[in-house]
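Table S2 (text version). Query chain:
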Amino acid sequence: MHVDDFLRMFTYDHWANLECLAAMRTSGPVPADTVGRMAHILSAQKLWLERILKRPQSMPVWPAAWKTS
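Corresponding structure-token output:
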């Protein structure tokens, strides 16, 4: 893959994340599992960026504060 491919994917992810967060803000109460899934998506994206940059993983892919049973 070329660097432009990664930039295009991260640009799309950024747009999609903003759309999801905006929908969550305007929807009223957000279920805990929805917040947990969004936390997972953001954490996983950060993990991949850290891997690309050859940096150590800075947080878990499933942040414990948002884990639901």
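Notes on Table S2: DSSP finds two helices and no strands in the chain. The first helix runs from residue 3 to 26.
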